[in-house]
Structures are given as structure tokens and as C-alpha cells.
Fold this sequence. Notes:
Layout (H helix, E strand, L loop, with lengths): L2 H19 L3 H20 L7 H20 L18 H10 L6 H9 L5 H8 L3 H21 L4
Helix pairs in contact: 1-2, 1-3, 2-3, 3-6, 5-7, 6-7
Amino acid sequence: xxxxxxxxxxxxxxxxxxxxxxxxxxxxxxxxxxxxxxxxxxxxxxxxxxxxxxxxxxxxxxxxxxxxxxxxxxxxxxxxxxxxxxxxxxxxxxxxxxxxxxxxxxxxxxxxxxxxxxxxxxxxxxxxxxxxxxxxxxxxxxxxxxxxxxxxxxx
Length: 155
């Protein structure tokens, strides 16, 4: 694969994923740079890539986890999309509030499935979990979100 094509096609996806997990824009930009530096190095090794999006998000996820472990600030925060007036959009607030009802890795699974459109297999590779575990966690996350939306509290 060509590095320029990967960057052009997936930079927004990687940035959105990191911005979803972290609210510090500088940190997101630093991790973006580290991610694509790692991508460039791995491409030099002629690695075989079956799903470029999952591969890139996996690298970004690992870079983020490594940073959080090093800094001991293990507080994944979530960025909200902003409306034109600089305030979070109402629909974004609802989605954000709903996702905050979940714990990791369920939050990442729901984000990957429904925002990024990843498959269970791609998420399993990205998160380092068995595919069956990802499916199970997705099922229970959907169930908790359903109850939260219906009753106002997770079950």
C-alpha cells in the first residue's frame, strides 16, 4: 500500500477515533503523528494489510493506550462535535451521554461498530480480544443502552 493513499483515505478516521477518546486536541494531534509514523515504518517492512481501516485504528488505539499507561492519566475523555455556535450539538450530547453509560471496551466496540462501521473481526484485532468476546460485549452494550434509553438508567 502507498503511504500517501493511506493517509489521504484514513487520516480523518484516525483523527475522529482519537478525538472521540481524548478531549485534548494537542494530544490527539501528537498521537495522530505517532500513528502515521508507525504506519510509515511498518509499510517499509512490507506488511500485509487485509483491512487498512482496522489496521490503522489498531495502531492508533495502541499508541493511545501506551501514552495513557505512561502518563498514568488513564482517563479516556470524549470529544463532542460542536455546533456552529461552539456548543455541543444536541444529538451529539445524547450520543455522548449514552456512550458514557458504557465502560471500556464496550464503548470502543459500540463506537467502532456504529460510527466507524468496523466488523467484529476488525474490532477484535484492534482491541486484542477474541471475536466472540467482542460480539458478546456488543450485545450487552446494546442491551444496556436500550434500557438506559427506555428507563433512564443502565441495567
